[in-house]
Amino acid sequence: MSEAIALSPPSKEGGLTFIEQLAAASCKTCPNSDAPVLLGTHKRIKNAVFIRAACGLWSCPVCGARNARRWIARLINGMKDPSTGAMWYFVTLTAHQNWRGDEASLKNLRTNWPKLRKRMKRKTEGAFYYAMVYEPHKDNSFHLHVLTNCRVPAKWYKDNAAESGMGYQADVSPMKNAGKVAGYVSKYMLKSVENADRYTKGMRRINVSQNWPPLPELDNSSNDYDYAPVGNKPGAIALKERYERLGFNVADPLHIIDNWHE
């Protein structure tokens, strides 16, 4: 479906950071030829352009990177939101030792996380916030990383994670700034893009508590283009000819019509 995009850990010789790699990947054009085609028209200046919409899939190296950047922005926005007022902690949790490998470890973590989450909420004074991502490891098992305002020691997580059915290994680190979190999370999101085939189909790559602040809405008021879907190649050709007769300058910068996959 998509072309490969090389993503790798930053090197000591000045290689791109994880965030910079995500930024570079997300600036490319979505390579999914099955994504819908749109025709944008600007009536005032009589311009029309054919574009291919982004597929939005995590398995797409371009859209997956865009999804990751959007989530990183939301996490940073939430940490800095005055309504949260939280001291943040970064928690690493493991799957039960008898549940190893892709499917087994994911099933163990996803099944038992709600039990631990309820315990964490009971230990938190005031509003409880969390964001969680899954990280695949070289041994084909997943770990769970949680950003939260639940203030308990590592020993509490070790005991309560084990009692909830997860692994007994756990680690807790206080997070003093959002930038450090962005660096951590970008690494895990990068792995999510690289290892898309190791995740259960349809699962969320990242989850947040319902009260986590949303990102501010984008202001699209300056965009004067109207977009409509184009169903097939004959329809695209007909629209192109129609708008040219109406005096529009019709552009197809990616040669979508010529390269259309029916």
Describe the protein.
The protein has a domain at 81-208: 2-Layer Sandwich (Alpha-Beta Plaits), CATH 3.30.70. It has a five-stranded antiparallel beta sheet with strand order 6-3-5-4-7, with helices on both faces. A four-stranded mixed beta sheet has the order 8-1-2-9, with helices on one face. The longest helix is centred in the middle third of the chain and has 21 residues, at 102-122. It has six helices and nine strands; from the N terminus they run αββαβαββαβαββαβ. The protein is elongated and about 75 Å long. Strand 4 (130-136) and strand 5 form a beta hairpin. With 262 residues, the protein is α+β, with helices and mostly antiparallel strands.
Which secondary structure elements does this structure contain, and how are they paired or packed?
Layout: H1 18-26, E1 37-42, E2 47-52, H2 61-80, E3 88-94, H3 102-122, E4 130-136, E5 142-148, H4 154-163, E6 170-175, H5 178-194, E7 206-208, E8 226-230, H6 233-245, E9 249-251
Parallel strand pairs: 2-9
Antiparallel strand pairs: 1-2, 1-8, 3-5, 3-6, 4-5, 4-7
How would you sum up this structure in a few lines?
The chain has 262 residues and is an alpha+beta fold. The chain has six helices and nine strands. It has a domain at 81-208: 2-Layer Sandwich (Alpha-Beta Plaits).
